[in-house]
Amino acid sequence: MHEGHRRRLYEKLKNGDNLYEHEILEMLLFNAYPRKNTNPVAHELLVRFPSISEVLSASYDELISVPGVGEQVALYLMCVGKCVEKGNNARFFASFSNRGDIYDFVKLRMRGHTSERLELYFIDKGGKLMRISRFTSGESDMVRVQPEEVIKLVSVIHPYAMVAAHNHPGGTSRPSVTDDDFTKQCQIICSMNNVRLYDHVIYASEEDIYSYFDSGKLDEIERDYSIRNLIKHEE
After folding, report:
1. How many Å apart are CA 222 and CA 212, to the nearest integer?
2. Contact 162, 122 (CB under 8 A)
3. Quick one: 66 and 108 in the same domain?
4. Which residue, 93, 114, 149, sits at the end of a domain?
5. Nearest to residue 135, comparing CAs of 99, 101, 109?
6. Which CATH number goes with the domain that contains 160?
7. Beta carbons of 108 and 201 less than 8 angstroms apart
8. How far is CA 232 from CA 156, 197, 229, in A?
């Protein structure tokens, strides 16, 4: 019986249906109670606390005083609360109001790494960072990303804009032919999905950072590799 109820709630979540607060808390508790009906405990928590937010910010002593909540469940809810707290702090920090904010964020993400890594930052219309995707190979001077992977991310996340960033450990920030080709691929993919490519930033050190936007190279790539212009050239 419980499995059928859980499946119905999961289907509502997957389909984006409206969920009552107690249903959301029920699903959260599925992990704490693998084989138990979580509905009564969810209701008990929401009787004691006015919202899920208050549940997740409650102290250990407050939680274990709720009928049906033992030590493991209380610690689980506190851990989830800490995750939410950290996530809110990260979202507040990762908001870009100008180019300098982007470069500072790239420095923070890239400094100290001895192997090459590529990151894609997906941004909403208000400048808030929505998602980060990282690609690494473990090699000091190479990381490969297939266009299909970028296409899938863009189609799932639906960002307003994207920034690509990678590092050149032990080298200069000067872009290679491979870097140029990847930027062109990103521009085509973004253009096809009505997404702006804000920049491709290459980090070599705190003092040595290359920006395709600042160099003017991005304008050339955008002109030559937007889907509209490519179609015109074929005509």
Report:
1. 11
2. yes
3. no
4. 93
5. 109
6. 3.40.140.10
7. no
8. 28, 20, 5
Same domain? 84 vs 133: no
Rounded CA-CA distance 189/181 in Å is: 12
The pLDDT tens digits for 136-188 are 876 655 678 899 999 999 999 999 999 999 999 988 999 999 999 999 999 99
Domain that holds residue 139: 99-234
User: Do 139 and 67 share a structural domain?
Assistant: no
44-57 per-position pLDDT tens digit: 998 888 889 889 99
Alpha-carbon distance 151 to 163, whole Å? Answer: 14
